[in-house]
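Below is how a single chain appears once it has passed through the pipeline. First comes the sequence as given, then the structure the pipeline wrote out for it. We keep one example in the README because the format questions we get most often are answered faster by looking than by reading.
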Amino acid sequence: MKKLLICLISVAIAINVMAQSNNNAEINKGKVKLKFELDEKGRPGYSLYFDGKTVIQHSLLGLNLVGDSEFSNQLAIVAIEKTSVDKQWNPVWGEVNTINDNHEQLTVKLKQKNSPNKLINIVFRVFNDGVGFRYEFPKQPGLKYFTVAEELTEFHLTADHKAFWIPADYDTNEYKYTTSSLSKIDAFAVSKIATDIAVRVVPDQNGVQTPLMLKSANGLYINIHEAALINYPAMQLHVNKADFNLTAQLVPDATGNKAYLYAPFKTPWRTILVSNKAVDILASKTILNLNEPSVIEKTDWIKPMKFAGVWWEYQTGKSTWSYADRADTLDASGNLLPNGKHGANTANVKKYIDFASVNGLQGVLVEGWNYGWEDWFGNWKENVFNFTKPYPDFDVKEITDYAATKGVKMIMHNETSGSATDYERQLDTAYKFMNKFGYPAVKTGYVGKIIPRGEHHDGQWMINHYERVLQKAAKHNVTVDAHEAVRPTGLHRTYPNFVASEAGRGNEYNAFSDGNPPEHETILPFTRLMGGPMDYTPGIFKLKGYAAGMPTRQVHTTLAKQLALYVTIYSPLQMAADLPENYQAYMDAFQFIKDVAVDWDDSKIIEAEPGDYVTIARKAKGTSNWYIGAITDENSRTAVIPLNFLDKDKKYVATLYLDADNADWQNNPQAYKITQYIVSPKSLLKLKLAQGGGAAVSIRPLQANEKVNFKQYK
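Resulting structure:
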């Protein structure tokens, strides 16, 4: 197989070598064309085209280092190399079982004219749906240790595109999305009204976060992000409103520097996805392909799962994370005085275990189980939490033993309150504790300002911290769900124990703020989810009157849309987020949560438009069962879903979980209906979605000799 691949690559090189002068080169891949050029000042640049249309006009590349090293001008080409790759690989878990990696690579080797021992390579990989490029510093005598002052990468757009954006922020991604033209971006205005975000550092009025989703007037969909973010700060973008040139801005450290590097070194990939179809953006696997293969050899311990948890009752005010009201509330013996509202107590946790067991949920997450919650938020303290010391009313062994009898795994929670230094000191002890009591997964949290003080959630130091956590967790066979961390960049290919993260505005904001608008979940797949799965915590069924003291607060979706989110917002770790008692009156609808898979053999993006609607069908891993989720924004619409992805000459039973005819996210959100039909690959579903609504569908093969009374869907 290796010999065959080498032969294929060699043939491809021979066929695809293109004419080039001394200072430029180009590569074509399907409808995508990339041009590289070194101008008369020795400045490297590129341009990108799709189907004859300009996507990125001539844009400069380069980096400036602290000192006298500029890799942005006065460069000379040493060599230009071209290669081709066409191979397949299988993710440990994911949206599909097999991923094709088919790209053309262009490597431009450069040197400084005045310092020929200082070298840099710019590597481009061109796919059918876009391009990735990065900078490489080879091992060299003229440059060993260096500090990045600025990255000068540009993305020069052709016009004032429609953009779906959040402010460039060093410490959080948890904003509502704004839809506007590029010329109307005002990050300061958005950040000032985001009063429900605890930590905000928004340094640039015209700055936006990636992934940035764009739509041009000539019908192109463009997504700008990055891949394989390791040992480097996250990239944000400055928008020049005069000519719509976007420039990279790296998150700085406490001294203002961007990155400290040793040669040889490779930066993350800068990614541009492009198509004339929105569905192609969601179907792209380019970001994953740009990440390195798994560094974990034995992966059979990594298990996708659905879970319940003692969490929503904290968010809605029913109980508290803390055991006492204050850290200085002590009895005569110096022990904490219980407040009587602590949710993570043994008896309460057992109720969640029972609920999970009865309903086939594999796990239970418990937050607020360990010492530190009385004095954790916003104090910027070095040592807050103990990750092996439970509160007096949380009996770890009793809970673990009880869960084992019910076939349920416990999920650990490690909130750091931003003190990454303290967490690193406790990492090994914390994960040994998890191993001792059989916890296979941990949800980490980084609420608050980062310690080391002056560092940011998205700076180089923290990027390295997140990777260290993944490495340590892998040694202990622990999977990680990271909250308040940097937005993902496909790193779950390299570390498949990185099963989920938050890094965006999740369902929780419907509990403690004015919530997420109905369009929010139709934008997330095009933005936050481009780099990896999101722990959005769907499945809220009590959609009004759930927040203590706030009777008018509500979730901005229908119940049917909450079901559909299990398909449209991908994660191998999905929570049934509501309180168990809130499901009791809707167990027929809860059946979809019980049935829906979290790991897939195939996914089909049926229809999509950012900010308007998304419809996705997925085939459950190792089965012939399919699940469909369709969601809309504040407007009612009809989702049109051809079932031509089903096996030919077979019949299926489809269960449709739909908005009721009078459903509406504002006035009647919990109204739904369930119907069943016989369907085939020739069926065309037409499902009405209410305002802020959705539809969920489960499809299974009709068994031989199975008798049903369902009608054929017409």
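The first helix runs from residue 2 to 16.

See the next section for the split statistics.
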